[in-house]
Amino acid sequence: MTRIVAGSVGGRTLRVPAKGTRPTSERTREAIFSRLAHDGVLDGARVLDLYAGSGALGLEAASRGAAHVTLVDSARGAVEVARHNVSALGLGGRVRVVGGDAARHAAGLAATPGDGLDLVFLDPPYDLAEDALASVLAGLAVPGVLASGAVVVVERSTRSPEPAWPAGLAPTARKDYGETAVYYAEPNARVDDVPAVP
Mind telling me which Gene3D superfamilies this protein's record contains (predicted)? Predict the structure, then answer.
């Protein structure tokens, strides 16, 4: 069972796609959101959830005070489930669901005028090719796409190599939860390596 951990719709359960997704565990989500809350990232945030699946990460952000969330997934089943979850939670005014390719969506952000994103989640399938992930990250690193102080959260298998960070986007921390490695990155960060979070 997948549920929203905390916030305005905390405790509510979510539907998940029947196949093709790997929902982030509740323990991992709680750890991610505790860190984001501590860093003051969530309140009023503009959030993008790529490879959204059921929308659990983006919906958790909305429950915890994000102002606007966009969920993006290319699988029709995932899009339908995410739309159901948004409606069932009554978050339609702040959350929109987009069916489409993550790399194409990220590449199109630079052409869309508006305020930069404050928070981006990328939780792709573990078998996504490293160059495909690098292409999505490159789209996010284009100046103006991310707001100053934005945070990018990437989930990968602990057996996968570290993501190839583009110029303008650098890692600030890594934390492992079982088989899941969670990377945090920021625009224009000046960090030479990826320290583990205690």
Answer: Vaccinia Virus protein VP39
What b/e readout covers 67-104, taking b as 16+ CB neighbours within 10 angstroms? ebbbbbbbbeebbebbbebbeebebeeebbbbbeebbe
* 53 CB-near residues (< 8 Å, 6+ apart): 16, 17, 21, 22, 23, 73, 78, 81, 82, 123
Q: Is 3.40.50.150 the CATH number for 2-187?
A: yes
Which residues pair with residue 110 across a beta bridge? none
The overall longest dimension of the chain from CA atoms, in Å, is 44
- The two structure tokens encoding residue 86: 């948004």
For the chain, give every domain's residue range: 2-187
CB 146 within 8 Å of CB 120: yes
Helix (H) or strand (E) run with residue 30 in it: helix 26-38
Distance CA 194, CA 183 (A): 8
Q: How deeply is 148 buried, as exposed, middle or buried, from its count of CB atoms within 10 A (0-12, 13-18, 19+)?
A: exposed
pLDDT tens per residue across span 33-89: 999 999 999 999 999 999 999 999 999 999 999 999 999 999 999 999 999 999 999
